[in-house]
Each structure stands twice: as structure tokens, then as C-alpha cells.
Amino acid sequence: MKVKISTHLTGVSLAAVMAVALTGAAHAQETAPQQQDDANIVVTGSRITTSGFNAPTPTQVIGEEQIANNAQPNIFNTIAQLPSLQGSTGAATGTFSTSSGQQGLSSFSLRGLGAIRTLTLLDGQRVVAANVTGVPDISMFPQLLVKRVDVVTGGASASYGSDAVGGVVNFITDTRFTGFKANILGSITKYGDDETGLAQAAWGKSFADDRLHVVLSGEYDHEGGVGPGDFGTDLAGSRNWYRATTLLNTGQANNGSPQLVYSDYAQPYQYARYGLINNGPLQGIAFDANGTPYNFRYGSNGQPLGTGRVSNCYPGNSFCVGGDLSGAPGSGASLKSSLERVNGYGRIGYDFADNNEAYVTVNVAEVKTHNQPSPGYNRPNMVVQCSNAFLPQLIKDRCATAGITEFNFGSSNASFPDPQVYTDRKQYRFVGGLKGSFGAAGTDWNYDAYYEHGITISDIKVRDIVLGNRYLAASDAITLNGAVVCRDPVARANGCVPINVFGNFAPSASALAYVAPHDNGPFQHTKLTQDVASANFSGNPFENWAGPVSVAFGGEYRREFYRVNADPYGAGVSALSPNSADYPADPLLNSQLGSNWAAGNYKNGRGKYEVYEGFLEVDIPLINSDAMGRANLNAAGRGTHYSTSGTVWAWKIGATWDTPIEGVRLRGVTSRDVRAPNLSELFAAPTVTTLPNFTNPFPRFPGGPAIGGVSAFQNTVGNPNLRPEIARNTELGIVLSRPSWAPGLSLSFDYYDIKLKGVVSTLSADQIVRFCFEGNQAFCGGFSLDNQNQQLNYINVQPFNLASWKTSGFDIEASYQWQQPLGLPGSFTVRALGTHVRKFIVKAGIAGVADIDNAGANTGATPDWKWLAIQTYDSGKFSFTVQERWISDGVFNNNYVVCQTGCPASTGNHQTVSYNKMKGAFYVDLGASFKFGDNISIYGKVDNLFDKDPVASPQTNTGLDINPALYDTLGRIYRIGARLNF
């Protein structure tokens, strides 16, 4: 990275510039983000652009060299390693999901507050969202042109507006790049998957006496992804760490034993790979691949009781331990979505006067992903007639002997095609702007004005998902006039083709077309648009006793809009449904309400809102002397009017003091920050998620045992009456920066405290049902769990401004650089960053719901400690880097009560559990590069050198029990590449 240091540094100290230039990353204290050229480095965090200004909000800077040394196919992966970023999402998260539409979406989350509370900018400008939640996709940025990334680790709403509650991540590109550069990268895991190929190139040139600047870049990235595995415990490749770790629910809350028992190899006992009779006198009879009946091998030495339960097993969520796991679908989900992205970027700038530029940028990008959420079709509860034409005669005879005409049946339907989810996001972003300086009233002023129009087109297609009622009709077969047909005459009249669910008998093409119409699978088409007009000014209108008083002010208009159309099978037929006439009427399906798919029931919807806002920021020098040092007061205020919720105010006030002690700076800031509800929260088209093994705590009859696992739909809807969230953010810090007695040393410590009120949140489906079961009638009207017909099982969830969050902790950063270490040429740099989360209290805001501290709950995103350490030797021709990543030990849930015997009563707020520890992780990465002359270099990297397996994150259902937002789930990765620079 080349940094030209002049005597006029805009918004950053010499120490910060040197840190960026020499180490590739610095804990910069300064800010103000708009202008960027070879003579100026402006660091995000404030709108003030005055020489020498030090902002009170901490800012971490990741420079070009660190980005290059980390050798990732997506710059997102490098930035997400910062300890202050907790809960970010990428290609390895969301792979278990069918309906979310967020697979492969790379977005940042600061302080564990969620991606929707982190404002991500490109050259200080807003970016159109890649999803209706309002977050952009980093995969769509022009990554080769990024010179550095500024991460503001504190509230910045007064300076930048809504969403900056956790902070700001600002990508700064090289707008004056000249020459040609390229990067080629290939990688593969130890297990022979996630083959990745990346090709990037950028070109820039100046014309017309250096007044016209043209920059072009393009990149292509293909990441093969990892998975899927198979049923049971078989993962992709030769990975062997999956053990189906589960919190088994005994169904007993008051018997002195723990209600939840931690165990490996949990075996669902309601279904098997090719079918299992799970209730009545024939309970325990399963079917092999040939359709031959056999006695199912239950774990825990269990024996079927004929009531749906199994002795020695766990009725609360219908599990045994061990036994035949061949039908458990958890391991069949992809570990990482495959991803393909194409990005094209162009910028033309013209200096119409000295220090004044007019420019236009165009960015066109497409990102495609693919994942498998689970294998087969998990159907734990259905009723089978003993007269079924495909049922073996042996079972028909057993039915007659037992005097029954039907039985309950569950199957993983391993003979069915595995569901597949495909997403395709296209983005078109256009920006036109003016920036520069002018003189007024005897002083210089800077300005930056731009208009942005962005469009995102998102398509989600799900393949090989069945229509629930058609599956039931097709699986109920009889013999009529010598032919096997569907029993229901209405179904037959509408094209029903029978299927054999007793064994590994793949449905015929015509049967599959009826049950899971491939061409008409779940589909969602979304269009999002964003329009932004912004103008900002800054200058020094006058001086006081300590120096120039700086002022920044400006305004912004923003319009956000979305429209979504879904297939009528999922959405129901309405005026918003395209080509609804192409979907023939079927009495078995709900043509008006939809929700006919087993998963992926997308809905239609639209919404928009407009924002008008203005801000004022001032920086007042208070002290400027050798005896007292230098101090300044920084304050800002912003008024914002939302068309949906009215006017809200944000403000901040802070100060920095360069003390008389050499290199020591004190800083502090407190702010009121806001986040307005996004389009999804306000106007979300209802989304329907399938819960295949939802724990129903209610008994089938009074005094009987809990029903246990059932299949249900979770209906999530928006709330147009939501109000903005309000946060109070306070930070206090001390910095030691390159004192003369240790010129290579930089240290910082920053304490943060965030209180967030009116948090837009929902209770989980499990909480809603459990609180009703425990007697809170307020929760009983929003669900129905009729175990006899899973199409009627549903739980409604809706967001409200109910919750409040409180989190606090501190950041530590240290770096040191030796020139010519041990007499060797070049430099050796060490750097370490750590974040400690003291507490993360979540208050649901509902009577009867206990507070919970998520700090140290490693099933989530906020471990007690998260560290990143980097050691680099660079001779100028050769460099070698060692990087360590560490996550501290934690728990599953801080509200669990651990006990073995003599346990207190277990409740929905404080469940008793046998074990509540979740180990942390320590990863080591190695990298090296070698230069051939001045223009060519080759490099290599090994991530997760010791192939550390992920730690189990136990659930209470059949999902893949890992936390990819916190742990590495892929294993060792080998990377190699080459860079050109002319």
C-alpha cells in the first residue's frame, strides 16, 4: 500500500497513517470519511474533515496489506474475523434453511447486535440492500479496488443516520487508481471440497492533463461449497465430527431429575429411513430398502409401548440414544452454500476545477448460491390405511390380527429427491456526485454531494419440495379394477399418481410431477429499490483560543421500496400472483391462502418508506498548549423524519484529550442512536417455515404424556405499526501511540456500554407454546397444534417493540513493529485485538418472560472473549504471516439450571439440564508470499492449520448441531494464488 504523507493530513493523525502504511491495519482514532486521494487519508467515524481532528469514537482500520495477506476469496471473510464483529453471516451460515432467502448473504454484525444494526457503506455512501431485511451483500462490492476498511465500533447515527447502532463498516476504494493489477486465487479443503477459483482485474488511467480519471474493475468467484452429507451421521467428505448431539427432553419437569439431558447420537423414534410404524399395536415395525418389514432397533434399549412412546427414551422431543440413526436427516444439510459471483465496476471522474470533481460510478453484480437444507422428506406423523395397496401382506395380516384398520407412520422418505434451494441476486447501482472544496467568508469549505439509485432483483427457487396434501393423497393407494390408484376419487380426477412409501422405491416421473412439481416449486421474486440524495459540507468558520472551530452539516433524502411475488401454491391466488392461470385448480389445495408446500411457502407483499434528515456536527478545541496538551469537544445532532413512524432525534457528545504525557490520549463519547424498522419488519410478506419436529408439550388426553414431536408451520408476519429502536451508547478509552521510548508500540483500551430500547423482536414458536402451556393465556390464541392433521398445525409470530437489550464490555488492541529484527532486512510486526463481552442482557418485555444474559452463550454470537492475533515478517521481497483466532469457552444458555439429582422444578424460563458447557476454539492460519521483481508475486495460505473440528451446539430437534457464525465448520483449507501489478 502506498501512502503519501503531506503536511496537510485530513482527519487522521501521523501515527494512524504510519500504522496503516506499515502494518496494514491500525486502531485509528480519527475520522470523517468522504474525500480520498494520494495526499489525504480520511478515516470514518465523523463528518468533520479538519486537519488534525481526532474523533472520540474508536475506529479499527484494515489496510490493503492485511487484506492481501489474509488471502480470502471474499473480503468479507477477512473483516468478519475482527473480534468486535460478532454474528456476521456468510456462505457457511443459513445452509439449513429452506425459506429464509439469506443463504450466501455476506453481511456484518457489530457487537452481536445483528446485521440490521450495522451500517455498511461504500466510499461513505449507502448501498441498496440485497435482502428485504435492509442489509447489503459485501460479495457485490468492487473488492480489488478496496484500499482499506474502516470499522467504527460505536454508535454513529448522529453522523450517518439509521442502522448505525452497533457502528459503521466503510469500504474505501481507490478512486484515482492508475495502472493495471490482477489477482488469481484457488483453494480447496483438506476433504477435497469447496473448490474455489477467484479472478480479479482492475485498470485505471488519467487523461486530459490528469483531469479525467477512468477506473474499471471486474471479478469472478466460484466457491464450490461443502455438502451435503447423508442421513444419520455421515457428513460431506471424510468429516467424522458429527455426533447428533442433542438436549434430550425427558418430558418431566418436577421429578428431581434434569428435564434436558445432554447426549450424543440422539435417535428420533417417530420415523425411519424408509418408514416406521410409530403408534398402536404394530409400533416398532420398520421397512427396509426392499419394503420388507423388520423390527426397528431403538436406542437406549427402548421398547415400543404401543402408545407412541418408547420405554427408556425421551418423550419430550421423541428421542432415544443410539440405535438405528440411518433415517435422521440432520447431517444431510450443506455445510457451506456453493456461491458464484460476478462483479463489474466503473468510475469516471472529471476535475472541472482544482480540488473539485464530478464523477459517475456504475456497479453491476450477480451472486448465485445453492444449498441443500436436508435430505429426503421428513414426515414424522401420517395415518396409513391397512388396506394400502403397497403395504406388504404380512403387515395387512398383522392389522387384521390386531383388529385395526389404520396406524400412524413416519418416514424420512429417503427415496425422494433431496430438496435444493437456489438463490440469484442481481444488483445495479448508479451514483453521480460532486465533491471538492471552495472558499467562503474567508475560509475553505469541503463538500460532497451525490445521488444514488440502486436496484436489487432477487429470485429464490426451491426444487423437489412436496405439496403436503398431494403427498398424503398419493401415498394412500388402493387397487381398483386391477390397477393401483389413489384412494381419493377427487385426487384421482385431478391427476393423482400413487407412490409407494414402504421402502426405497423412487416415485415415477409422473408421480413426482404430481407430488413435487419441479417446474412449479416454491418461488419468490423480489425487487428492491433505493434512492438516496445526500449533500454534506464541512469547514472552519472561525477560531477560538485553542484553534479553529470545525463544523459539518448536511441533509439526506432516502426512499426504500420492495415488492415480492411468489408462486400461488405457496402464496395463494391473488392479484399479485403472476400467471396464476398456469396453476390448475385442485380441491386438495388451498387456492386462496396457499401454504401448500411442505416448506418454502413464500407470500406476496410490498412496502415502502421515505426518510428526510438533516445533521449538524461541531468540533470545538478546548486546550492547545505544551503544558496541558490538546483537547477538543465533539458534538452532533440529527433529526430524521420517517414516513412510517414520524420524527426521531439522534445526538452524540464526546471529547478527546492528547495529554501532556507523551503518546497518551484519552477519549470518551456518549450518543443517542436510532434504527428504524426495515421493510421486512414493517411490511413482510408472511413467511411460512416448516418445523418438522416441533415439541408439543400438551398431552393427547388429560393426564396423559406430552404429545412430543409434531410437524407444524410457523407463520411470520410484519407489523406496520413498529417504531424506531432507540439506543444509548457510551464509550471510554485510553490510547498509547508510538511514544519516543517505544516508537513501534501502540496500545488501546476502550470500554463500551450499549442500552437499546424498543427492540423489534418476536418470541420463538417454542416460547409462545410453552408459556401458554404454563398457564399464561395471553399466548394461547396464536397457535393450533392438532396432532392428527399436520396441515392444521401452526404458530403465528409477529414483531413488536417489546424487548430491550443491555450489553457492555471492552476492546483491547496492541501492536509493535521492529525494523530490521535480529539484523534481518525488513520489519517484524505483531498485532493483537480482543473483545470481552461482560454482559448481553435480553429483556423480552413480556410479563412472565425472564431476562437472559447471552454473553458467553456460545450457541449464539457473543462469546465472553474473542481474540485475533497476527505476526508478520516482511523483508520487502518475502513475507510470512502467522495468525491466531481464539474463542473462549462458554455455555449453551445462561438461564439453564445445571443439576443431576434433587433438581428444582423446570420451567420455560429456567429449564433444568444435565450439562451446560460449550468449549471454545483456537485456530492457527499460516501465510507467505514471494515477489518476482516489482510486478509479480505468488502467495499461499493454510487456514485452520490443525484442522480443528467445530464444537457441538446442541439443539432439541433433528438439526445439524453446529454454530457456523462462531466456529469454523469446514476444516483445513489450502489456498494459492498470484498477483500482478503494473
UniProtKB/TrEMBL annotation:
InterPro entries: Beta-barrel_TonB, Beta-barrel_TonB_sf, Plug_dom, Plug_dom_sf, TonB-dep_rcpt-like, TonB_rcpt_CS
Protein topology in the membrane: Multi-pass membrane protein
Gene3D superfamilies in UniProt: TonB-dependent receptor, beta-barrel domain (2.40.170.20), TonB-dependent receptor, plug domain (2.170.130.10)
Main location per the UniProt record: membrane
Any one of the GO CC terms: cell outer membrane
This protein's record includes keyword Membrane: yes
Nuclease found in the keyword field: no
UniProt-listed Pfam families: Plug, TonB_dep_Rec_b-barrel
Residue span(s) of domain TonB-dependent receptor-like beta-barrel: 430-945
Signal peptide: 1-28
Motif (TonB C-terminal box) on chain: 965-982
Domain TonB-dependent receptor plug: 54-168
Keywords, in A-Z order: Cell outer membrane, Membrane, Receptor, Signal, TonB box, Transmembrane, Transmembrane beta strand, Transport
Compartment list: Cell outer membrane
Family label: Belongs to the TonB-dependent receptor family.
Protein name per Swiss-Prot or TrEMBL: TonB-dependent receptor
Native source organism of the sequence: Sphingobium amiense
